[in-house]
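Re: that chain you flagged

S.,

Sorry for the slow reply, it's been a week of failed gels. I finally had a moment to sit down with the sequence you sent. For the record, here it is as I used it:
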Amino acid sequence: MVAGCGVLSSGSSEDEGPIVVGTTSAPSTLDPAASWDGSWELFRNIYQTLLSYPHGAVEPGPDAAESCGFTDSSNRTYRCLLRADMRFSDGDPLDAQAVKHSIDRIRKIGVVGGPAGLLGSLERVQALGDREIVFRLNKSDATFPFVLATPAMSIVDPDDYPADALRKDSKVSGSGPYTLRSYEEGKRAELVRNDRYKGFAERRNDAVTIRYFPDSAQMVGALRDKEIDVTFRGLAASDIVSLQGQDPDEGIQLLEGAGTEISYLVFNPKDPWAAKSAVRKAVAQIVDRPAIAHKIYKGTVEPLYSMVPKGLTGHTVGFFDDYGSPSSSKARKLLLEAGITERVPLTFWYTTDRYGSETAPEFRELKSQLEDSGLFKVTLRSRPWKTYEAGYRKGEYPVFGRGWFADFPDAENFIAPFVGEENALGTPYASPYITNNLLPESRRESDRGAVVKQFEEAQQILVDDARLLPLWQGKQYVAASEDISGGEAALDPSTIMTMWELYRKTSW
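Prediction finished late last night. Pasting the structure tokens below so you have them in one place:
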């Protein structure tokens, strides 16, 4: 009876103004050729890709494309046919040449730590006529459709995006569900319906304003004060716990779901101490993940013992199998066997405004754990994301924290981006057996459930090297005012919010 007092409206919310969404994850760039990070949150809504994730899908389906598929049994030739009469939001034609231009410039510009690392299997792109695009791969790659569905492969207008340089202004020429009406870096992005859009998205609102907050407390305060309608990234553990125990009269709903976000440490081999295997393994032997998950994150994350998160085919618990429970004595033995008798000095870096308000307490906890062992002397340093990102791409940090949101829901995406000369870390990690054997084997197999062996072997190599140290796996939380619906549907398989799913409830 109570539920019957409201009707869910999928119509326009224009009369009531835009839906206002808060996040602590501001874009680092507006140019897809430069981004392999959380900027994709915005890209998914203002640009378009050949493939995307129709509601409820776990595998890519057509978006700007009418159809796509491999044309050979070896998974080396991939063909897409564009929808007819596609246009960018400014009216310019979106044809096969525009798609070719968009993909080619990613590799030509070659931003360090940028999305070119996703295109390692691509040999060349061909535009055949106005609507047909053919991707020739240099090796079998059954995951290539997943790559095309990432916002990194957003289609841009050749008239506005140079072939050999990044776009410099704060404007966007895309063909997504929304156009970017205005943008203030680090503050807000105003999105309005793109009337020229042709794709799978069924928009349930006419406008969305995204507000960027420096921390969770301010964002949740704005939600409680009804300055925003929804939060979708960056809720602190303390705020989640508070919302879980809130008075129902507050009128805020908290939605929880499984997630594949991971947090991990990166060891830079250019640093004389981080380059030592015994040092990395001693850190791995001491780190207490359950303490971080429960003391810092209040149970809103889970301890993670592999770079591949739980819930994906091939997940293992290699770090737990090899190291067991935290042990200072075992760590001391590792160091002594390597001839290291003094306290090891390490500098840990983290970003202040990317992965949530618990990041600083988390790193203080890591420092405490390592120093309490008597084996390490840890110095903490931090920077805002934009300068932090530039620093790790230049190899400035001995040990640094990163988070990872899946490009696509496959174990490959938690291994391949981190190895090789060009990777998402900006820190080369040569692992020839992974890059030359295991990944090529897995990419020849269209049945992703049949490549568990390869993923398990790759994860064990990552454990043996200890160049990357997984810490925790997150859950998804969306907080929204009680008059907003669509929050559950708004998170796609790569946990990116599709703003068009949000809508206001209307009364009788």
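What I noticed first: The radius of gyration is 23 Å.

Talk soon,
D.
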